[in-house]
Structure formats: structure tokens, C-alpha cells
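User: Let's play a game. I give you a shape written as C-alpha cells, and you guess the letters that built it. Ready? Here's round one.
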């Protein structure tokens, strides 16, 4: 889990995941969208692949990357108690504000 957080701490990697959320993309398209060099983009993709967040498949002469949702579901499950805590605090704030009116 902590390695996924470390991987996602880098803004470029989060941007790659945002792009792949829309649809699978070849490396060249990611390079163009990110404004990075091909080697720089490939380094980020390798880190994401090693963390299990993306997978690559061959399409003729190019690699197409796609998002893997399973590791993100694990992160979401870990965050759920924190989300519930915030929700209960916001609900309490709403009740307090409503009582003041």
C-alpha cells in the first residue's frame, strides 16, 4: 500500500493515470499529452507498471498502456474510514449551522 502512495505522490504519474482513465493510449500519445520526452515518459510508465497500476499490451509495433483498477480499489478501501470521518464531521457542522439559523 505505501508503495502505491509513493508512486502516486509524483504529479506526472497521476496525470498519466488521469489520461488512461479516459481510454488506453499508446506511448507516443502519452508523450505528446504530457510534453515529456519518450524516455522520461517511459520511466514513469515503468514505475506505474511495476506498482501494478497500469499494464502494457502490444498493438503491432507499439505498446498501448491501460489502467488497472484493482490496485486503486485497494487504496479506496484504505481511504474509506477517513472519508466516513470527514462525512460525519461535515454532517455535524451542517447541523450546527442549521441550529444557529
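Assistant: Ready! My guess for every position:
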Amino acid at each position: 500500500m505505501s508503495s502505491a502512495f509513493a508512486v502516486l505522490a509524483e504529479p506526472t504519474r497521476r496525470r498519466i493515470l488521469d489520461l488512461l482513465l479516459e481510454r488506453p493510449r499508446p506511448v507516443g500519445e502519452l508523450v505528446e499529452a504530457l510534453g515529456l520526452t519518450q524516455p522520461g515518459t517511459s520511466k514513469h510508465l515503468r514505475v506505474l507498471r511495476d506498482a501494478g497500476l497500469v499494464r502494457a499490451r502490444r498493438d503491432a509495433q507499439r505498446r498501448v498502456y491501460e489502467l488497472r483498477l484493482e490496485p486503486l480499489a485497494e487504496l479506496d478501501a484504505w481511504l474509506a474510514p477517513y472519508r466516513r470521518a470527514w462525512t460525519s464531521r461535515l454532517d455535524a457542522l451542517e447541523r450546527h449551522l442549521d441550529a444557529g439559523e
